[in-house]
Amino acid sequence: MDTEIKIISRRRKKYVRSTNRDINIVHRNPNPESHPFEQAREYKRALNSVKMDRIFAKPFLTAMTGHIDGIYCLERHPKYLSRVVSASADGEIRVWDLMRRKTVANVQAHNQFIRGITISKPNGNFFFSCSDDQTIKQWRFSDLRSNVNSEYQKKKKPISTFISEETLRGIDHHWSRHTFVTSGDTVQVWDHKRSKPFQKLTFGTTETSSAIKFSPVQKNIFAAAGSDRSVALYDLKISTPIRKVILKNQTNAISWNPMEAFNFTVANEDHNCYTFDMRRLDRALCIHNGHLNAVMDVDYSPTGREFITASYDHTIRIFNIRSISSRDVYHTRRMKRVFVAKYSADSKFIISASDDMNIRLWKSEASKPLLPVDRKEKNAIKYRESLKKRYGYLPEIRRISKHRHLPRVLYFMKQQKKKSLQARARKYRNMKMNNPSSVKQIKMRKRFIVKQLK
Amino acid sequence: MNKKNQSIFKEEPITSKKNKSRNAKPIKPKNSATKTKKTPTKQNQKNKNQKKNSATKTKKTPAKQNKNTNNKNQNQNNKQNQNKNKNQKKNVNKNKNQNKNQNSNQKKNQNKNQNKKQNQNKNTKNKNVNKNKNQDKNQNQNKNKNKNQNKNDQPVKSKIFATKTKTTPTKQNKNQNKNKNQDQKKNKNQSKNKNQNKNQNSNQKKNQNKNQNNNQKKNQNQNKNQNKNKNQNQNKNQNKNKNQNKNQNKNKNKGKNQGKNKKRNQNKNDRRTPRRKWSQEKIGQYKKFTRGSGASTQHVKDRKLRGMMKSTERTIRRGALLSIKSSQYLQEKPGYIKVKNKSKRTETITQKDIVKNIEIGDQYKNFELNLRTFGPYISEYSHNGRFLLLAGKKGHISLIDWMRSNQLTEFHVEEQVRDVAFLQNETLFAVAQKKYTYIYDNKGMEIHELDNHTDINRLDFLRYHFLLASVGNAGIIQWQDVSTGEIAGKAQTKLGPCDCMRQNPYNAVMLCGHIRGVVTMWSPSVKTPLASMYVHKTKVNDIAVDRTGNYLVTASEEVVKVWDIRTYKCLHQLPYLKGVSRTLDISQTGMLAVSEGSRVSIWKDVLKKPKSYPYLRDSLGSGYIERVRFCPYEDVLGVSHMNGFRSLVIPGSGDPNIDSFEANPFRTLKQRSETTVKQLLEKLDPEMISLDPKFIGKVDTGASKVRNNELQLMEKANKEQSLERKRRFSKFSNNDDDDSSTNNDQSGAVITKKKRKNKDKLKEKIRKMQRNVMDQKKEKLINRLERRKHRKEKRKEKRKEKRKNKNQGIQKGGEFRALNRFSKRF
């Protein structure tokens, strides 16, 4: 023949699986012509995935009861993922197993308000508690663990007791050595085997400092917040403190970024958190706002990319370390003022303790599935993430992804706060326009700082 | 596809040495005359030279090239065949790109040569620069001794065509031809030579011609000698004439420039030698997969944003490369017809021939259904091409799985049926009946009666929007969301009853063809047409849009026109059809099927360029064709007509490679339900239908426009202030110039450009002429302008002097003397 003719001929084998147990055969054609409305459909997918995120956002996992008073201290174990120690205002300490959601051990440690708990590092065999009764007690986990609620409970005794001459407001353990520091009128440095502090640090005037925290990277450095609205940096190697900054409001908690050695974040009474660079305390790296009442606690995720804050306004917020506004807000109707919130060591969970005598467990990513996902679903999630990233700037998608429901009271508080802030800004603007000499132009990042001392 | 590939592979290798030799084998000099399309003649000749000279070196120094050009005419007189000359002509027409570059060459030559040779050219009124060039060459030749010329001859051969083509843009070519005729009469000497000197220009004086003729004879002798020498140009040792060396030196200097130009020419001519050393096909694919050029990041000041943009661009590029790779492994190849006897048109091939030639397993694709009772039939294929919906005008409806010849349902509505349309899959379809439109499922059960759609002539379903569009005798176009039942849009066409509607698959805009020969485009969110085109003088019978959304084809009476939707312009018209074309369709690969009464003609690649005859043609014998539809993802055309339905096999009409997530003819029931859910999830809003479907990724410039408007308002408000400023300025400027004051009075707030009061004809002429071409005319004009300027200045000076003289004379109080004007007082 002088002609050669070929047409499309599809063999069924190539397109249909041989048995029902086999996977379906999939053919792809990358030609854009065979995918009309690519962009529009992708956008729609992005919209769907954002909506799905909101639908599946169920972060609250469980509430654990047991304490009889408000819980003000909480510490996670450095070694075991599921172990958490909490202390309440009535002087009881409980050790929790998060897996079983139960109390593993409990002890009536003090007769008064327990101000701080810290677990010895790196092994985590002991923990220390300090109370208003001016004592620090050292406990061994293994002593407490057995015989919960038994007769012997009363016989449970601390390994050692340290008596302080001053009031105690907080405590933190060194990351590798047998040392711990307490804050009070002065900062005291203790050793496990000495009954008295081997070092006392002050910054000139006497102050009662509350929060105190060792840096996990530069282990000899720690920061302490004072009741004179100050945040001071100390070094164990030097007898004198390094530097100090006085803010307009008091600081309630401090947390170091485990990945960026210089940076730490401070939870302030003025509803904000401030991230500082250790080397320059005259300005904040970033101001994190969003809370509607004093921020009581702050804790960095082990990844160093995010931190959580617990607030007096009954909410927990999750912040990206570089962003001003929070990524997410957690609240439940029964949760009252939250005093402590901590990340779990795998950064997947958040543990919060509040005034209402409960410890709550949350997911750190509200809509992520907890169970292991198979490869297909993983890929689907990945695809959805990238779509969200790509189309995240479009107004509809941004609106949905940013929207968070707030309780009625908080919602109105938020509106009010917004109004008052606007009014302040307006006033400032007017002053600047009409009487420029009366207004000092200070950068936002410096406004909340009174002075820096060296 | 295959043909393209071949041509690409043939064209590619020019730059590389290996391929040259590979090319040299299949191309015979005799055939080269006929095979001009695929293989540039340059190559042919090079190859010839290689054969003759058995030259190993392929690259030539610029100096040599120059020589080549000088000896052009001689070479032509040499052994070159008439065939070659023919080739040249063809080349000239084809290589337009070359010509552009050649122009630049010409300029240079012109400029150099003009001064010297214009005198000589007085006899001949040459507008062509080429002639000048040729003259120069001739003169050079005369200056050179014969021997030198001969030495230069042979390498020239290969270059002749390159240079020839350079000198002939199409317009000039015509002139040349005219001149040639004249020349032939004049130059009897030339005509005596057996070698026709068609390309030689007439400017040569008779003496020159004589010289040449002498030279030619000698050349022939010498060529033989030279054949022995492999590298003729480098044979300085053999030919120790001083003249030669001098010439070479001269030529070297010129050659440098020419060499550069030549390189440039090559780059532009040979598009297949791209920057990335990719084949043309790959470059095309790359462009396709990157979906246009990316956003430029140069103007972005924000570093973070710039970084992000860059990274996204990078990912897009990477993705494009990956998809190029993956498209190499596509399983199926498109169909084709290859005719070995080239004189035979594919048009003559009948369905019988096709069926004979294809595999037995595929022969079922050609079938015929005789359904005489229920009148003219219409047909519709499902989106994945597996199902066929047949509807007789008199009420017979059947749903067929045509690939397995399995009828799913068949029923009779006992009413007139005007149109049918599949909904999202084969389980549902809509039927426009006498009064209302109904939706049936795949078992023939009536599911909905759409009483909103009355008296409907045409139905269409927008798959990604879940919209059922309809238009009828009331002239109202209507979209109904099939998933929710809401009416998404309704618009009155106001152009009378309408029985022609198709969707643009690229952007889901509905196109209606009207009685008055107008095509209108509709979106559900807009009450007025997005665009309307006056397409035919008579009623529009049918329209179709290809899937790239670039081309629109309209049919009216016996006229079928192809339009570019982007520009709304008619590209061309199909040649005379043998009957009224009632219906047409465009396949996935861009093939066009047109009905001509009871015939169908299929046109390949007709959208981009006109064709004089169809790809295939088939006639039914009797009964006009009611509807023609290509089956997606198959090489099949469904023709429904008065007496039933016929399925024709049209090689190369369907997209060979399916995407299982888009349309899968082999999908299982479970997959079908899954895809339905996904489709519903990804349902696009009716508001998203617009002429540009990609608007979603783009930056909305509306906000900036608002801001600009505000700014303009501000400017208006501050007009007074600026006016005042202007006035002040005008006072200041008044002192200097008288003209400026008038200008300021007119302008007000906005500074306007100075309007030219007196049109300067000379300047305008220069302006009108092409800027990048420098020729005699323009130069003359410029010279004239300059002279005029000079004169003006002189006059001014004179006037000034006069005034000064006068003033001085008066101040001095002396008498005015005639002699004063000669005295210099500064």
Automatic annotation (TrEMBL), chain A:
<feature type="repeat" description="WD">
    <location>
        <begin position="288"/>
        <end position="329"/>
    </location>
</feature>
<dbReference type="InterPro" id="IPR007287">
    <property type="entry name" value="Sof1"/>
</dbReference>
<keyword id="KW-0853">WD repeat</keyword>
<feature type="domain" description="Sof1-like protein">
    <location>
        <begin position="365"/>
        <end position="447"/>
    </location>
</feature>
<dbReference type="Pfam" id="PF04158">
    <property type="entry name" value="Sof1"/>
</dbReference>
<feature type="repeat" description="WD">
    <location>
        <begin position="64"/>
        <end position="106"/>
    </location>
</feature>
<protein>
    <recommendedName>
        <fullName>DDB1- and CUL4-associated factor 13</fullName>
    </recommendedName>
</protein>
<feature type="repeat" description="WD">
    <location>
        <begin position="331"/>
        <end position="372"/>
    </location>
</feature>
<dbReference type="InterPro" id="IPR051733">
    <property type="entry name" value="WD_repeat_DCAF13/WDSOF1"/>
</dbReference>
<dbReference type="InterPro" id="IPR036322">
    <property type="entry name" value="WD40_repeat_dom_sf"/>
</dbReference>
<dbReference type="InterPro" id="IPR015943">
    <property type="entry name" value="WD40/YVTN_repeat-like_dom_sf"/>
</dbReference>
<dbReference type="InterPro" id="IPR019775">
    <property type="entry name" value="WD40_repeat_CS"/>
</dbReference>
<dbReference type="InterPro" id="IPR001680">
    <property type="entry name" value="WD40_rpt"/>
</dbReference>
<dbReference type="InterPro" id="IPR020472">
    <property type="entry name" value="WD40_PAC1"/>
</dbReference>
<keyword id="KW-0677">Repeat</keyword>
<feature type="repeat" description="WD">
    <location>
        <begin position="107"/>
        <end position="149"/>
    </location>
</feature>
<comment type="similarity">
    <text>Belongs to the WD repeat DCAF13/WDSOF1 family.</text>
</comment>
<keyword id="KW-0539">Nucleus</keyword>
<keyword id="KW-0687">Ribonucleoprotein</keyword>
<dbReference type="Pfam" id="PF00400">
    <property type="entry name" value="WD40"/>
</dbReference>
UniProtKB/TrEMBL annotation, chain B:
<feature type="compositionally biased region" description="Low complexity">
    <location>
        <begin position="94"/>
        <end position="123"/>
    </location>
</feature>
<protein>
    <submittedName>
        <fullName>Wd repeat-containing protein</fullName>
    </submittedName>
</protein>
<dbReference type="InterPro" id="IPR015943">
    <property type="entry name" value="WD40/YVTN_repeat-like_dom_sf"/>
</dbReference>
<dbReference type="Pfam" id="PF08149">
    <property type="entry name" value="BING4CT"/>
</dbReference>
<keyword id="KW-0677">Repeat</keyword>
<keyword id="KW-0539">Nucleus</keyword>
<feature type="compositionally biased region" description="Low complexity">
    <location>
        <begin position="63"/>
        <end position="85"/>
    </location>
</feature>
<feature type="compositionally biased region" description="Basic residues">
    <location>
        <begin position="17"/>
        <end position="28"/>
    </location>
</feature>
<feature type="compositionally biased region" description="Basic residues">
    <location>
        <begin position="752"/>
        <end position="770"/>
    </location>
</feature>
<feature type="compositionally biased region" description="Basic residues">
    <location>
        <begin position="786"/>
        <end position="806"/>
    </location>
</feature>
<feature type="compositionally biased region" description="Basic residues">
    <location>
        <begin position="249"/>
        <end position="266"/>
    </location>
</feature>
<dbReference type="InterPro" id="IPR036322">
    <property type="entry name" value="WD40_repeat_dom_sf"/>
</dbReference>
<feature type="compositionally biased region" description="Basic and acidic residues">
    <location>
        <begin position="774"/>
        <end position="785"/>
    </location>
</feature>
<feature type="domain" description="BING4 C-terminal">
    <location>
        <begin position="614"/>
        <end position="693"/>
    </location>
</feature>
<keyword id="KW-0853">WD repeat</keyword>
<feature type="compositionally biased region" description="Low complexity">
    <location>
        <begin position="131"/>
        <end position="153"/>
    </location>
</feature>
<feature type="compositionally biased region" description="Low complexity">
    <location>
        <begin position="190"/>
        <end position="248"/>
    </location>
</feature>
<feature type="region of interest" description="Disordered">
    <location>
        <begin position="1"/>
        <end position="302"/>
    </location>
</feature>
<dbReference type="InterPro" id="IPR001680">
    <property type="entry name" value="WD40_rpt"/>
</dbReference>
<feature type="region of interest" description="Disordered">
    <location>
        <begin position="731"/>
        <end position="826"/>
    </location>
</feature>
<feature type="compositionally biased region" description="Low complexity">
    <location>
        <begin position="41"/>
        <end position="56"/>
    </location>
</feature>
<dbReference type="Pfam" id="PF00400">
    <property type="entry name" value="WD40"/>
</dbReference>
